[in-house]
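Checklist before submission:
- one chain only
- standard amino acids only
- sequence pasted in full

Submission:
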Amino acid sequence: MFMEQTDLSFMCLKENYGGLLSPDDVRLFYYDICFENETENSFMYDWNKEIEAYLSINNITIDAVLINEIPQSFENNKVFFTMVSSDKDNKAVAFFRHLRNSFSHYSIGYDGNSFCMKDFQDKNKTIQTMIGKIDRRYFYGLINIFFKQKEKAENEYSKYLTPDI
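Returned file contents:
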């Protein structure tokens, strides 16, 4: 499901949380998450029953909270983030915005087999708007559900544009 791209092994993130991202992880975040966010395709994602079921089955908590409810330390398989008006009450849009920011601002890395991610409201990184630690395989599983949603929506939209004659 990943886009065609060139070798990104030259990209290097700061060691914020114990380890650097692999080239495959960099491709995922750079092309599939950041690019999608920049083109506003994340509005095709839906925080639906399939997402909730996946999270529940795998004992993962990912939720939007108020800024003063953001924990200050990482917890296994828990991600908390804030929402703003530009998210248009779409939890998935907010989640992907924070993922993009975490990658773009070098606030992501590894702790063992888990991604550790943060996002901040300000340049000085004093006001935290996301914190999360999630097992890499669960993260990829979750992201692939969102990608399948988008693919389905695009297919339905293209049928609308080219009706059968």
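Reviewer check: The first strand starts at residue 61 and ends at 64.
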